Amino acid sequence: MITMYSTTWCGYCHRLKSQLDREGIQYQVVDIERDPAAAKYVESVNGGNQTVPTVRFDDGTALTNPTIKQVKSKLESALSS
């Protein structure tokens, strides 16, 4: 399952959530404004910025503000490995 770091007010986050739902991709949402450790993680993979959505995959890699196509591609490549 992927983890999506988000905020309640992020339009890009809402769009990606809708796309993930439509594609049937399971994910967990973590609000970086409520979880300081999550905010630090997002900063660590985004050059000190709290850029959302940031998506973390099971292999430990992350994509920042990805398209649904990028998420699907990453998940498909993980399955074929």
UniProtKB/TrEMBL annotation:
Give this protein's Gene Ontology molecular function annotations.
electron transfer activity
Q: Where is the Glutaredoxin domain?
A: 2-59
Cite the Gene3D superfamilies for this sequence: Glutaredoxin
Q: Which GO terms describe its biological process?
A: cell redox homeostasis
- Cite the InterPro entries for this sequence: GlrX_actino (IPR011915), Glutaredoxin (IPR002109), Grx-like_ET (IPR051548), Thioredoxin-like_sf (IPR036249), Thioredoxin_CS (IPR017937)
Q: Which NCBIfam families match?
A: GlrX_actino
- The name on file for this protein is NrdH-redoxin
